[in-house]
Amino acid sequence: MPTPTAPRRSRRLVLLFIAVCLVAINMRMTITGIGPLLEQIAADLGTSPAALGGLASVPLAAWAIVSPLTHGLSMRFGLERTVGWALVALMIGTAWRSLPGPPISLWLGTALIGAALAIGNVLMPAVIRRDFGDRIPLVMGVYTALLGGLGAVSAGVVVPISHLEGGDGELGWRLALLTTGAMIPVALVAWVLAARAPRAETPVTDRGADPSADGGPRRDAAQLGEAAHAGDPVVAPPAAPRATAGMPVGRRIWRDPVAWFVALYMGLQSTIFYMLATWLAPIETDSGVSPVDAGISVMLLQLVSIVGSLALPLMYRGRMRRWLAAIVPLVVGASFAAIVLSGPALPWIVLCGLGCGTSLSISLLLMAVRARDAITASALSGMAQSIGYLIAAPGPALFGLAHEASGAWIWPLALLLAASLGQALVGLAVGRERFVFDRRERPALSPRRRRA
């Protein structure tokens, strides 16, 4: 029978779902538009596209630095407040890099954007786990689809926007970058309304819910723990609580070998994706494709990646659970080699996009299935994203330097193929059914076996 608080909780969930969707829309749009505009930005600033390849690495470096700090920020200020301020920072960073000013503003604004996105990357899955119960798979699927889809749209529309004609002539790349943040104010308003909506109170239980913390950090942590397994289709088997008083989970995670495998897989996956997202358009224009069509190819790559992400549950089953993490990066490397060696073609771009989407979903899935509870998964997510993006940050710049040094795309191709092979090897290790913090000590012998 519905309780008196059920309608109130339903209204809040509707508001929160809308807010989550709007936040997802803004999680990639501000960074995926950089690649197709590299040549315009370089021409305007009087530098080379290869030198600006490092611009795509700035958000990755910011993610590497900020991700491990995000868990502490959310525990201190609460999930809602931390995400809200991250949206404010995202809005400021987008305006900072887009408006006329010294060239350093482009880099500093992009760094602020990266820091804001790092907070969202880590905390939005925690919000979904905490509040949506048995709807977690649905909400997470919608969130991932919007995140990838709108990032793809941004990559496809920035070049046409940059060529719009106005009263003073061509509006240019600055307006194009500014429009990538057009939905941030809408998302911020929706998020504030959802955060202020009354939350249905839950009775105090022996699992540690804190009634005195009305939506605050302690209550966030308690509810996150309670929702650890709610509606999760791929959850680790339950285990007895582990004593963590000697060292917080956030510190213990850095000493766990399984966590490091997950982080390495995340890093190599991100390296490959951001190399492709940044340099696919220049590769195509170098082969004679128009800049507009090259931007559409980047959009297609990311749109198709959504299909790869959504197809993961169909592939991650049976014996493929063990081998999928190793197979997918080899498919991505092979399809990109075909693009470079035989020229851009629709089948290779589609295959590459499918592989990239599946690879990203595997990385995120590993953060859930290699942890036995939500708090551990949160710590693993922060650690893996920090290390992962630290690994990925030099990728686009190194790709550009390899092209500049060789004058061709063979050396950059070799760099990406090396990353694909490395990801496949890590995938062989991380595909094994092991969990973070599992003790691998030899079990004690029974008295009968001792006497034997």
TrEMBL record:
Keywords: Membrane, Transmembrane, Transmembrane helix. The chain crosses the membrane at residues 12-31, 51-70, 82-99, 105-124, 136-159, 171-194, 258-282, 294-316, 323-342, 348-368, 380-402, 408-430. The keyword Membrane applies. It holds the Pfam family MFS_1. InterPro entries: MFS, MFS_Cyanate_Porter, MFS_trans_sf. This is MFS transporter.
